[in-house]
Amino acid sequence: MNHRIIGTTLPVLELQLEPGESVVAVSGELSWMSRSIDLQTTTQIGGGGLFGAFKRIAGGGSLFMTQYTAQRESGLLAFATRVPGHILPVEVQPGQAYMIHRHGFLCSTPGVELSVGFQQSLGAGIFGGDGFLLQKLEGACQAWIELDGEVVAYDLGPDETMRVHPGHVGMFEASVRFQITRIPGIRNMLFGGDGIFLAALTGPGRIWLQSLPLSNLAHALRPYLGSTGETAQDVGAGAIIGSVLRGLSQK
Fold this sequence. Notes:
The chain has helices at residues 49-58, 186-191, 214-225, 232-249, and strands at 2-6, 12-17, 22-26, 30-33, 37-42, 65-70, 75-80, 85-92, 97-101, 105-108, 112-120, 132-139, 141-148, 151-156, 161-164, 169-173, 177-182, 197-202, 205-210. It is α+β, with helices and mostly antiparallel strands.
């Protein structure tokens, strides 16, 4: 199986499958494929049968997964990222595991096992009210992980700790200890603008941090989306009028 990652800001993972080779992904990730690719959607992929499927759901994954197989001749299969980011290839060996953010799994070869790695409620309004979730990636496979924005990797030594805003946690080796902590000081929590919680990642092990949490992207786009009942034209007109008024007031 050959693969290549095309593009930079919005990359595409392109896979060239030989007859009989397969790739599995959560439902809804497919971008395009050639006619020789056959697909089958089931709950029996991802390890653990039906019970494993419920563990995937607990980790923020999907009940159904789809297996794509090249039939009779080689075929092309592609998965594109949904937001600006990067696609990281990861070789998963038996006895080795990774923790990834809840939407990080893009696809893999058969033999992947996905389950909940960490779950903690952080209160209403935090991460959509769903709390903080991590998926656990293990098994024996080649996997591809989608991280948002730019990716910065650090190798932590024993007992070395990096404190990170939870949304920036992309992936880390299972040898890294993970804990949700509070921002110290009431004044810092209320007026610091950095939120209430931090993730403490303690080595040994490698961590991959992402520069564009989806919550930050949603917050940045909110002023341009308009309120319920507004059309795109209304929002655009409002933005233009507001720009003109600001310009006049500065003269």
